[in-house]
């Protein structure tokens, strides 16, 4: 075919001819995908998740196994192809096919966009709970033989942004972005990450570098930011303590989770907590002396050299404080930072 003929550039002079050839065969730009697929197979992560799915399709008409579809969708997202429409092109990509376990040329293409969309829309609440359980069990198995002495659980909330003309997406002012809505409410995932500290044979403690995802729970955004956080902890913390008796558990989150019911639960369950507090007039008045000290120390620093800036000054303090909705006083630690006059 003419389109497959090399394109020459006779106007370019030199010792060697210059030509563009479009018959290079099957090409792909996602070489790192094979490493991801190998890691997935060694860990068995997608296999554990696929085990929680029920195949309700007619066996006579099935062309794409559930495990292959799940791997295809997960690998696409990991490579930055979040839109299911990308599958219409990537389903025949040689590296994506190899990653899923199919021969690049001789075997059937991967699932199409409609097939992946039916998979996502067909997942039930029961299957989502199985997914959540599989993720936690995966974490427990990965560290089961280690001397874990502390686990810090970081709670965070975020939006689920959209990047096109997806159905039911609306603008949300707080996040300054378009995100998914359902019945006029934006979905806001609750994420729980774990930071693990182990104790070496010589008695020294060592914090593992990587945070690991334990929970990803989708919630409506018209509710409180801490919605279902206590329910998640009630299921999660006993599993951690069952695996590592005596382990220290600390809950950490920003002011969106600073609610009396969460304080009370952590205290009743002997779990440490470090939660941010929203600024109010009482807290500002109580911490004003520290800020004044920070200003004074900042002014006393020598003038910086040209092109340099004065280092920031930090003043730390703590005091007992009881908000109107609290049943008791609690320790508040405040850091006042002065970086400029």
Structure report:
- This protein is of the alpha+beta class and 341 residues long.
- It has 3 domains: 28-121, no CATH class; 144-275, no CATH class; 281-338, no CATH class.
- It has 10 helices and 12 strands.
- The strands form 3 sheets. Strands 3, 4, 5, 6, 7, 8, 9 and 10 form an 8-stranded mixed sheet that branches.
- Helix 1 (33-43) packs parallel to helix 5 (94-100) and helix 3 crosses helix 5 (94-100).
- The termini are far apart.
**Total of domains:** 3
Order of helices and strands: EEHHHHHHHEEEEEEHEHEHEE
The total of beta strands comes to 12
Largest sheet: 8 strands, mixed
Radius of gyration: 27 Å
Mean of residue pLDDT? 84
Structural class: alpha+beta
Helix fraction by DSSP (H/I, runs of at least 4): 25-40%
Portion of residues in beta strands equals 15-25%
So what's the overall shape? extended
**Ends distance:** 72 Å
Topology, please?
Blueprint: E1 7-8, E2 19-20, H1 33-43, H2 45-50, H3 66-78, H4 87-90, H5 94-100, H6 113-121, H7 125-143, E3 148-157, E4 169-172, E5 177-182, E6 185-199, E7 205-207, E8 212-220, H8 229-243, E9 248-253, H9 260-268, E10 272-275, H10 281-300, E11 313-321, E12 330-338
Parallel strand pairs: 3-9, 9-10
Antiparallel strand pairs: 1-2, 3-6, 4-5, 5-6, 6-7, 6-8, 11-12
